[in-house]
UniProtKB/TrEMBL annotation:
Residue span, ABC transporter domain: 3-228
Gene3D superfamilies, alphabetized: P-loop containing nucleotide triphosphate hydrolases (3.40.50.300)
Keywords from the named record: ATP-binding, Nucleotide-binding
InterPro entries, per the entry: AAA+_ATPase, ABC_transporter-like_ATP-bd, P-loop_NTPase
Xref: Pfam families: ABC_tran
Keyword Nucleotide-binding appears in the UniProt entry: yes
Name of the gene encoding the protein in the UniProt record: btuD_130
GO molecular function, one term: ATP hydrolysis activity
Record's protein name: Vitamin B12 import ATP-binding protein BtuD
Amino acid sequence: MSIEIKNITKDFGDTRALDHVGLSLGENRIYGLLGNNGAGKSTLLSILTGRQYPTEGTITVDGEPIINNDAALGKLFLVAEQNLFPDDMKVKKAFDTAALFYPEFDRAYAEQLAERFGLDRKKKIQSLSTGYASIFRLILGLSANTPYLMFDEPVLGLDAQHRDLFYRVLMEKYAEHPCTILLSTHLIAEAANLIEQTIIIRNGKILKDCSSEELMADAYSVAGPARLVDTYLWGKHVLSSNVLGGLKTACVQGQPEELPEGLEYSGINLQDYFISLMEEEDRQ
């Protein structure tokens, strides 16, 4: 079971939003889709779930093309900012309606999540606050029980407590009912521990597609007096650096060598790696 994305390109007039994107999303794995604003994340998710058509390229779900294929598209659920239900529909009725379109929709589980998040099922969708509108959509996605579940900025408008609850519920769900999850987010530090495979996109092109463990193992940070750091960095692949007073810190691609006295080495987290990679791209 997999989603195969081959040579996907999307043009909006003279603007190329996606440029020959190729990805393979395997079974029962959590993917992180990372990129700056305008990188093409939302466009890719929209095409992937049949909400937009590509200019060229193909997408298959378990070997079946998604274009005009309700069976293939029925295996996917995208949680995005757009509400696909009538605004005057009540939350409870929306749960009932979702069960008609997704045969595996777990109505009882949706009710349980509504209790945990404090979502009033008697309210009309249009009367929900930004945060609770996001929670409503998250519950739909988590309850749909599709083999492929995608999130586009899932915690939009959520306070810290509800964001933490969402991440915990997502991991509970993944542990009990494994599926393929594609998570697009700007809050990298919050989601980093969930992401098994990292996909980084910039200007419509894929820059990185590898396991998060592999990504983190191939970069490190070095810090110390600026003169010593500059000497150490000679000939190395420097992603980013900054200077504060007489001290310098740099993010380096590759494996660390033995450090001279006076310098300190540390690992790098996913957010710092992403920021450093974007800074390198900005310089090019």
